[in-house]
Amino acid sequence: MTGRVFAGVDAGSSATKCVVLRFEPGGETVVGHAVTPSGFDYADASARALREALAAADASEEQIAAAVATGYGRASVRFPDGVPRRSITEITCHARGAREWYPAVRHVIDIGGQDTKVIRLCDRGRMADYRMNAKCAAGTGTFLESIAVRLGLPLAEVDALAMRSTTRLTLNSYCTVFTSTEVLERIKAGDAKEDIAMGMFRAIASRVIEMLAAGGRDGPVAATGGVVTYCPAMRRALEEALEVPVHRPPLPQHAGAYGAALLAAEGAAEGDSIALHAAPEVRRDAGRSGSCACDDPPRRNAPSCADSASLRGRPC
Amino acid sequence: MGETALKRVEIEAAGRLRALMRRYFLDLDEAAKDPGRRVAWCTSVGPCEILAAFGFAVYFPENHGALLGTKKISHEIIPRAAGLGYSAEACSYMNSDIGCDLLGCSPLRAMYGIDGPPRPDLLVYSTNQCRDVQEWFHYFGHRHEAMVAGLRPPRHLGEVTAEHVADVRVQLERLIEQIEIRFELRLDRRRLRETVERSSRLSVLWGRVLDTARHRPSPLTFWDMLIHMAPVILMRGSEEAIAYYEALLAEMEERNASGAAAVPGERWRIYWEGMPVWPRLRDLSEKFFDLRAAVVASTYCNSWAFEPYDGGDPLDWMARTSLAIFINRDEASKERFLEQTFARFGVDGAVFHNARTCPNNTNSRYGMPERLRERLDLPVLVLDGDLSDLRFFSTAQSMTNIEAFIEQMEGRS
Ligand code: SF4
């Protein structure tokens, strides 16, 4: 591939994601993306993710015109020398990414490994306000993971169980440790494993409700992040709690990196002033791909299911 | 963004402040050791003018609590207090001060070469700020076998009425009587009036220092104010403190005249509501500085900028000022005050600190940030943390929150 590309790297607490895109007159095209465990070394993980995404795009480091680092480890992200780079929070990047997929979206719920964010956008697509979970694992991916570990089940299995739940069960504890204990008590009491598993997702959804309530619930909702990527039950729990359909973009886990790459391109185009404003035009549903296997096909050129091959073989 | 090396301009008066603080603490230490002198402990908006007029050297344990916070040791010593049955969610000033006492340690030793907080002969609290101070003072009263007296003013007021003032005035008279009996002293009313006059002058000067931050760019920020506010709390009625604030005010006015900015290239003006996060002052101030955001006003620092004394009954003034403080007002009054102050200082956004162990000085728990955001169309951030206990504060999460807050404002501009 020739020409300039823009890179976004989202160094999250659990996984580091990278999106490489090319900006063309008709809009942006995602040409590569990757995800890799963050481990202890964000610099190393971000270099790996960038390398893999560039390889997927058949592009080289020299072609990177601008880059944005985001996520918990954003300060440690390294880009090749000479690449103009900026650091922008994951809140802004997730909002930007989600809005590109769903221009009319008003709420973005990002459930990450370490924190959960609820971002409210105004009708012009601008960030109106946002909330992050308090300093606590409850309501995040870590909450699910730690309970799954306690139960000795892979997270995928917890999700599969939850999707077979038939009876509503609510877990009452607020904190991760107490919820683990409550789960064991429920098992002892003979409650169905499927319902208990769904109760775990419901617990996260109820934390989201707390954060969302402040800004009202007007307009479409999109959910992003690793939990939504790998656990369909999470979306189900959110829809049940919010009583509205929740959009799940084709690459939910990459929403932050995607937004970062978009902001890198826009920043370069605008002479490096941060382009956090509304999209130049709100292209409601424009160019939706009818062939995407996702429930909510993205706007034209945005990464879709077809792009997810490099996502370690996981279907979207 | 924010990856620049801006140059911070030091406030010249800071050197003078250090000397002033040193003299204050050495004098307290001397008073505690001198059988001819007495020490009284007082809450930060308690009746300290009466104590000073009686001749007590007045010490404020909240200052020690804040000091323990800045030294980043509160979270390590609080468990000691918790072991005595004080909840880890009760005031972390109180808990760290008690923990410190149990361990027999104090940063005052390294700072001023004194043993620690001065041993009290008398402890006087006012619940105009919270109930925790009552428990805190009783702990130390018991510990030092010293007299404890408390004022319990009417709380959460809308208007401060003549009845409220009369109520507190009666309590102040009773306090005077108790002290006179217990210590066989006689209050010199003329001396009280003079102390109140100086206290008021000091407070007015402090208010004027704070007001210099209305200038664009601001000559000082919340982070500077937190350092320079010590005399208005600890040395009310002191001529030395008055001279100090005159110098500080002159310096700030000079800065304004020359256009010198506390945050060069000031882009954003922020209001800070609630307690400071003492152990993370440096991180927070640097973060805002790098983002070219000047925190120009705060509820906290304004708490000691009282209405001026008009020459009437000094006890009336003391009663009224102790009732009128922000922390003692109802939601509607607080909200009105914030709205007016946002406008006076021309702020672009407000940070509400949700201090886990101080619900009294936290105003984000009953919808106020949301109401103000909606009504004023002003970006508002609620930051979870604590005044001292780092276990309730996540630096990484808070920094992301602050950056996103600024990005939100960038998006609006
Ligand atoms: S007002 Fe808050 S910080 Fe101050 S003493 Fe009371 S509880 Fe502690």
3D structure, described in words:
The complex is a heterodimer of chains A (316) and B (413). Chain A has 316 residues and is α/β, with parallel strands linked by helices. Chain A has a domain at 5-98 and 253-279: ATPase, nucleotide binding domain (Nucleotidyltransferase, domain 5, 2-Layer Sandwich). Chain A is 36% helix and 19% strand. Chain A has 9 helices and 10 strands. In chain A, strands 3-2-1-4-5 form a 5-stranded mixed β-sheet. Chain A has a 5-stranded mixed β-sheet with strand order 8-7-6-9-10, sandwiched between helices. In chain A, strand 7 (116-121) and strand 8 (127-132) form a beta hairpin. In chain A, helix 3 crosses helix 5 (176-189) and helix 6 (193-213) packs across helix 8. The radius of gyration of chain A is 19 Å and the shape is globular. Chain B has 413 residues and is of the alpha/beta class. Chain B has 2 domains: 2-12 and 192-412, Rossmann fold (3-Layer(aba) Sandwich), CATH 3.40.50.11900; 14-189, Rossmann fold. Chain B has 18 helices and 8 strands. In chain B, the strands form 2 sheets. Chain B has a 4-stranded parallel β-sheet, with helices on both faces. Chain B has a 4-stranded parallel β-sheet with strand order 6-5-7-8, sandwiched between helices. The two termini of chain B are 16 Å apart. The model of chain B has no long low-confidence stretch (mean pLDDT 96). The chains are: A alpha/beta (316), B alpha/beta (413). Chain A binds chain B through residues 72, 86-92, 115, 126-127, 129-132, 134-135, 214, 274, 276-277, and chain B through 1-3, 370, 373, 379-380, 382, 384, 392-394, 396-397, 400-401, 403-404, 407-408, 410-412. The complex binds iron/sulfur cluster (SF4). The site of iron/sulfur cluster (SF4) has 12 residues of chain B, from helix 5 and helix 7.
